Amino acid sequence: MTSDPLDLLALDDELSRSERDTRDRVRALVDEHVRPHVGRWYADGVFPLDLVPRLAEAGLLGMHLQGHGCAGRSAVEYGLAMAELEAGDSGIRTFVSVQGSLAMSAIAKHGSPEQQDRWLPRMAAGDAVGCFALTEPTAGSDPAAMRTTATRVGDEWVLSGRKRWIGLASIADVAVVWARTSDEGADDGRGGAGRVRGFLVPTSTPGFTATPIEPKLSLRASVQCDVVLDDVRLPADAILPHHPGLAGPFACLDEARYGIAWGASGAARDCLDAALRHAGDRVQFGRPLAAFQLTQAKLVDMALEVARAQLLALRLGRLKDAGRLEAHMISAGKLANVRSAIEVARSARTVLGGDGITLEHSPMRHAANLESVRTYEGTDEVHTLILGRHLTGHQAFR
């Protein structure tokens, strides 16, 4: 019998020593530097910028990337780290995802050697923050409908448009902006006009404005912004030279979605832990809540969902490390694990009773955060249709 009730199926046995060490190291970081403060951060609606150097020192920024000061860890180690960060708070895991899986991955996958040398070492060290500007006010689940344009004028690109729900934009040093190239002006020689291309935009560039979206009821210990690009002028070499088209941002989104599948399992585990501890300590009608049948039924249902989410995340990680992970598999993980985590959070809150609505306990905070997580990087509906397309061969998006 496993001695850890949170490890229902003894999944520790499936992890290598290096993987367990990574998990335990990130868990200790969260216990020391996140848990004591996250309730206040959430209540005040602030992201703790002083946490960034600690995340960098732990090798968590771009930790799955190779070279340029990145840790180069395995997909499973990266996933385990995301689970521990989200057990602390979705907002903290979101920072690491946006920085590493979106902004840094875009530069690593699609950038020139000069762009990589300029930005990746600084971002891995936490000396520069990046954001990933894809979503628009009228183009959320349908990025092909984006209206932001990039026009070649002489030796410059001129970007105009609006983006919405852009994580970290107001604290970022560089934005990876996706825009549709205009028919005006010369082409860059690597793709036709009208294609979606990525651009590196230093946020100090005139015409770039990022405004935090407030008030929010979710992801309060995080930053999401409206971005305006008002004739932002960039040098010709600001364009990411590789992979024109939507395949560029989608490759980065898959990296983030993979991390979310792990992160959601961590949030669910933290909710189960909170419910178990409370049920063991809280005495009603002369005995602890944990001794009542209805409470045990809730705890069992939660434990099964947590174990299933952990198994699914680990399977995705092993496939990714083997080079066999496909997009529909990532959709399955993101859809199933976030859906399960929300139900676990809600059930855990009921075990906590009235105390469960306070920030002293994590489940209601997790439940609110997970409503954002289920929406970004592909809604439930989008991932359902991705899986439907895989099963039937029919495209049902349009």
TrEMBL record:
Annotated EC: 1.3.8.6
Record-annotated Acyl-CoA dehydrogenase/oxidase N-terminal domain positions: 18-127
Domain annotation Acyl-CoA oxidase/dehydrogenase middle: ranges: 131-232
Catalytic activity from the UniProt record: glutaryl-CoA + oxidized [electron-transfer flavoprotein] + 2 H(+) = (2E)-butenoyl-CoA + reduced [electron-transfer flavoprotein] + CO2
Limits of the Acyl-CoA dehydrogenase/oxidase C-terminal domain: 252-391
Involved pathway(s): Amino-acid metabolism; tryptophan metabolism; Amino-acid metabolism; lysine degradation
Cofactor dependence: FAD
Pfam families recorded: Acyl-CoA_dh_1, Acyl-CoA_dh_M, Acyl-CoA_dh_N
Domain of life the protein comes from: Bacteria
InterPro entries: Acyl-CoA_DH_CS, Acyl-CoA_Oxase/DH_mid-dom, Acyl-CoA_Oxase/DH_mid-dom_sf, AcylCo_DH-like_C, AcylCo_DH/oxidase_C, AcylCoA_DH/ox_N, AcylCoA_DH/ox_N_sf, AcylCoA_DH/oxidase_NM_dom_sf
SUPFAM superfamilies in alphabetical order: Acyl-CoA dehydrogenase C-terminal domain-like, Acyl-CoA dehydrogenase NM domain-like
UniProt keyword annotations, A-Z: FAD, Flavoprotein, Oxidoreductase, Transit peptide
Family according to the record: Belongs to the acyl-CoA dehydrogenase family.
Name of this chain's protein: glutaryl-CoA dehydrogenase (ETF)
